Amino acid sequence: MNEQAPQRVEPNAAFMQLLFGKQLTFALSGVARLGAADHMDGTARPVEEIAGHCGAHAPSLYRVMRMLSSFGVFREEPKRHFALTPVGELLKSDAPASLRYLAIMFGEEFSVRAYEHIGDCLRTGIDGVTKAYGKGIWEVLAERPEQCDTFQRAMTNSSAAAAAAIVDAYDFSAIERIADVGGGQGLLLASILRGNPRLKGVLFDLPEVVAHVPHDRFAGCEDRIAIEAGSFFARVPDGCDAYIMKHIIHDWDDERCQTILRLMREKLPKHGRVLLCEMVVTDEPGPTPVKLLDVEMLVVTGGGKERTEEEFAELFAASGFRLNRIVPTGRPLSVIEAVPA
Q1: Residues labelled catalytic
Q2: What residues contact residue 79 under an 8 Å CB cut-off, 6+ apart?
Q3: Which one of 7, 23, 146, 204 is separated from 236 by 20 to 30 angstroms, measured CA to CA?
């Protein structure tokens, strides 16, 4: 049997496909903001009906959905009918692993303006948000409540996709009281508590964040949860034998990460541990999610980055810890465990 050789993509075509990534990002963000998928399911419906439900201009929505269908987000059928694919299901607000608000966030003003300055980032190392606004991302979000709400919802989307994988991969049974530092709206911590009925938890984040934790987030765990407000650069919760942070350390430079970790080191007992839920940069030469996220950190945060195993070990050593192990999950995220040195 003759095996068919893989089709060669001409360099020009490959380059143009990469270049048009902008159209994909903003198209996904646009239909996510409209909530178009909330009015769709696996049955193909006319684009005019979808547009009517979400207040869109049907001819324009058709052109965008036709393009996204070619990338597997929707399924296009004759007479301008569209249905959701499993990928498109992630745009629904109530999907178990919804990424709707993550898609919206990538089209928010702070993100768009940051990438206008990527050339400056490459020349100076200064992030694009600071170049655009004269202040860092966290100050910008604090001044823009609607964009901050989108950001927090996007982080909850991210936690929803990762929480089950973290709970499945890591054994929390030896921990008595764990604090989720920078835990946002509490989805990860709630998942950990429900999977470990003897464990007590503390949700810790800024006042404006914990003020909007959904009232039913810790349903069934109310007697095992405390919610505290504060800055992790000033303090961390007392009385814990473990601290966990998901996608927090990658937001900051080494100096500020050490500030957070040293506060934890002061509070932890000898048998305590710190758990960082982060991606780990490897020598894999092909495209990986961690490389894409690393560029996002370069452009949007002031000094944040994705780290290698060696960089995590150095960060821990400078903060009074030692890297104990890295536990992979079923997603690109790992649980990086450090113990007091």
Answers
A1: 250
A2: 46
A3: 146
**Residue 334, class by beta-carbon neighbours within 10 Å (0-12 exposed, 13-18 middle, 19+ buried)?**
buried
- The CA-CA-CA angle for residues 154, 155, 158, to 5°, reads 90
Cα separation of 50 and 165, whole Å?
Answer: 34
Q: What are phi and psi of 32, to 5 degrees?
A: -65, -45
Average pLDDT score over the chain: 95
H and E: helices and strands count for the chain: 16, 12
B/e letters for 182-206, b = 16+ CB within 10 Å, e = fewer, are bbbbbbbbbbbbbbbeebbbbbbbb
* Structural domains of the chain ordered from first start: 11-92 (1.10.10.10), 160-340 (3.40.50.150)
Spatial distance between the Cα atoms of 73 and 84, rounded to a whole number of angstroms: 7
Residue 2 has pLDDT above 60, yes or no: no
Where would I find the H helices in the chain? Answer: 11-19, 21-34, 47-54, 58-69, 86-89, 100-105, 109-116, 118-124, 128-133, 137-143, 145-169, 187-195, 207-210, 254-267, 289-300, 309-317
Contacts of 315 (CB under 8 A, 6+ apart): 249, 254, 257, 258, 261, 307
Q: Residue 4 has what pLDDT?
A: 65
Tens-place pLDDT, residues 167-212: 999 999 999 999 999 999 999 999 999 999 999 999 999 998 999 8
C-alpha span between 143 and 154 (Å, rounded): 18
